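Predict the assembly for these two chains.
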Amino acid sequence: MKKPDADNSLRRIQEEIRAEAQVARTRAAHNPRAAAAPRAIGEVAPARTAVSIDELARFQFVEFIEHAYSVLLGRSPDSAGLTGQIRLLESGRSKIEILGNLRFSGEGRAVGVRVPWLLPRYLLAKAMRIPLIGYAIEWLVCLGGLPRLLRHQRAADAYHAARDHVMREDLAVLGVQMQPLREEVARLDREGAELGVQMQALGERFAPLHAEIGKAFQEARELRHLVLSMNHWLASLRQNLAALETAESEHLRKADAVHADVAVRLLESDPQRPARLRHWAAEFAAGLPPAAEVLDIGGGLDWLQSMSSRGLAVTAINQNTEIGQHIRDAGITVAVAEPSVVLARIADHSLDAVTILDLASILRGLPAVILLDMVRRIVRPSGQLLFGMGAESATIADRLEGRARAQVDGELIERALQTSGFVRIRRVAVGDDSYCLIASQPN
Amino acid sequence: MKAAILIPVLTSKDAVGADALAMARILDELGIETRVFCQSSSGVQRRTWPAEEMMAFAGGPEDLVIYHYSTGWPLALDLLRRCRGLRMVKYHNITPPEFFQAYSGDYRTACENGRKELEKVAALGFEMYLGDSSYNLEELIAAGASRERSHVLAPFHRVQEIVEAEADVALIDALTDGARNFLMVGRVAPNKGHLHLVEAFSAYVRAYAEPARLILLGKVDPRLHAYTEAIRQRIDEHGLGEHVLWIDGASEAQLKAAYLASHVFMLMSEHEGFCVPLVEAMALGTPIVAHASSAIPETLGDAGIAWQEQDPWLHAASAARLFSDDDLRSDLLERGRRRYRQSFSNDVLRQRFVKLLEPVL
């Protein structure tokens, strides 16, 4: 329960500190006061530690020197120092002398590691280096230490005897353990020799295979080269074909634009066409339910708009990209494609009606029997079909491309409708030469 | 069952080394034969073995291996991949290499290499992931380690030894001259925020005009000479040369003296995976003002004043408030002692470590 209060208190203090920080900043900026420096302490000496002689002397040879450097000077021995100290050890100098050399050097004094009793023993060791007197001192020290030396000698003898005994036993055990190993090595040698012979035989057997592999490898490399060349050639060909296709599509696009333009101009010159299309659309829509789904093939935008204005849901197929774009721009769904391809993909009995104003141009790519069969498949029972019998845009395109003006025999088409099963076939005319045929699917 | 502690370099004064040695000691006390495997060691009494021999000792299905991860060490990953027993990793964090960008290519590369191994360590599928702090642990988890197998275990430390050590009385005397002592403990490395610390200290000297001393206690690394020089230059720019005391390679007695004689422990470090000196300051009763970066808020808890901002004036004003507000200082010191006792004393950490080991013992 006390903690929230404590937290609040700390938060309040922090807010006060924040305010004080602002004041301090301003104070320092406007009235900088130089604080007095504290009492100088100078360099704080590195850590002084104590280490015993026994601790330093328990290591041997190089390890002894490295350890002594590390403890007494706080660093690893440099190459010259290490060599020099090793030489001293090899010449029979005592460890005390080497420890003293390091500890009482200028660097050792600066580090200042405390080694109790090192100084007197070091001085004694140094005194022994004085000619004649040193010799006498050494004698005296040796004589004085003789009982201790003898005790050490006896202990060393016992230690070495024990070690010798242990080593002999170990050697005997090793000898016993070595025997099976020797046998194993001999067996391995034998098996190695046998393997060598087998390897040689295998090598001889594999020589022709290696030659064959080399040959196959060479052939594979040539084949790879050929494949890469062919790839390169195919890539170039693909690029050329793509360029040709691009040029062809550009040409077709231009042709479609010209055909569309000519068709629009020509149809605009037909003063009867608007009234005719309105009349046909009215007659046609009267036989269909509201918002009936109608597919037009190849008709112009004016015909599609006439039907839309009657409340019919119109979609279109047109082969001319330019006209297709105009239809799309008017908000009507259009497929720019070959009519037979689109018709083949439409589901059975999925439309209420189909209209084709320019029957002649459709029949040029799709025989009447097949067309009627397709229409019967996709139009629902009681649905309608409208065929225009006049000069329309696609026929104009045929004429522009030098093909003879397509002629459709209305009588013949009526017979074909009857034969295909359409009923209530009637002609709808406005007064000119053009008329359309409207037929129904039976129920 | 045998246990192996795997650590690249083992030294007694290093925080990672202290953690590894304490773990080895606890495992010994639990009656588990334990060896420490490393590449090199110095200043430690305990015998160590070459890392390459670890598999022969503790590579079996019943054995335990604890890897102390604080630097890149491909050999360790190879060994751990082949271990069949229980594997634990203790992640001590690795300083982001960007800190060394301007100062040392070698350190930058070493840190980069170390951090590159983070995902490999996570992918090794250790049976247990330990982090000094949840800050460290989240890095491991983000690298792909399993959250269910991850636990926080603060590092074992030598704080109790320092508390019980004899302080350098001469140093305490020298520092007790009426000046306010600002203490920073940590090696002189770019992530430790020494430049920000100099700014904060300078702000205090300019705004409060009281005698003050900044004590920078920590190992000066010759390989980071450029960084040390940058600090010296910043000190000179502020005309604070006579206010700053450097203590390089301090003994435990000197360290304790510095804590006891300091009026504030100011930590401006920008990256810490745990920060043992914070625990030392709590245990030895030095109030703390810190920059709340990385794992510092988690270690500090409510035992000091921490700021998200690196605003020198905020830190200077915090120190000034501590000097003048006895109640606040007493409250923070009490919180610090309590936090040390309840969360970071070696006894508490030992219990937590043994509990984590229980399923495998």
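Chain A touches chain B at residues 6-7, 10, 13-14, 16-18, 20-22, 24-25, 27-28, 32-41, 43-44, 46-49, 70, 74 (CB under 8 Å). The first helix of chain A runs from residue 2 to 30.
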